[in-house]
Amino acid sequence: MKILIVSDTHGNEWNLERVLKQIGKIDFFIHLGDVEDGEDYIRALIGNLPLAMVAGNNDFFCDLPGETVFSLGKYRILATHGHYYYVYMGHERLWQAAREKKVDIIMYGHTHCPCLECKDGITVLNPGSLTLPRQKGRQPTWAVMEITEDGTASYTFWCLNGDKAVEIDV
Questions:
Q1: What is the mean pLDDT of residues 12-19?
Q2: Residues paired with residue 79 on neighbouring β-strands, in sequence order
Q3: pLDDT, tens digit, for every residue of 121-142?
Q4: Is pLDDT of 44 > 80?
Q5: How far is 160 from 64, CA to CA, in rounded Å?
Q6: DSSP 8-state code for residue 15
Q7: Distance, CA of 140 to chain centre
Q8: How far apart are CA 101 and CA 69, in angstroms?
Q9: Per-domain residue ranges of the chain
Q10: pTM for this structure?
Q11: pLDDT at 136
Q12: Rounded Cα distance, 133 and 114, in Å
């Protein structure tokens, strides 16, 4: 199973369109907030794929949930934008939420910087931003989660370098 994870498109989906053309077939789509009125356009872009999409701190007047818990394979996942967990100050509140909600993976956005951290059997992941990246080099980034037939999850982070998708280390 191949899952595309993005965040912080801020109503500018041109890079999402490019990523969808380059990535090929995906089985699930996750957007971690700050769509800024782009949710209907994003749904049209991905078609009938199953998805999880949450509201961010800039998503006013939308009907997206603030966070959602769902399962993919054997993993329980919490998708959130992250601002309610004060992610700029660290991941401690995310770790606490993971334990309380009994999830294996927390995915968040908000900081616009890609991140992958594992501790005590819990994975915390941020794909970065497709529109307004803030990490060194400031390339638009996203993540792909793959779940193999034996149920193992792996993560790959990518950036747009000109017109090409390039794998990056996080």
A1: 94
A2: 68, 107
A3: 999 999 999 999 999 889 999 9
A4: yes
A5: 27
A6: H
A7: 13
A8: 8
A9: 2-168
A10: 0.96
A11: 87
A12: 9
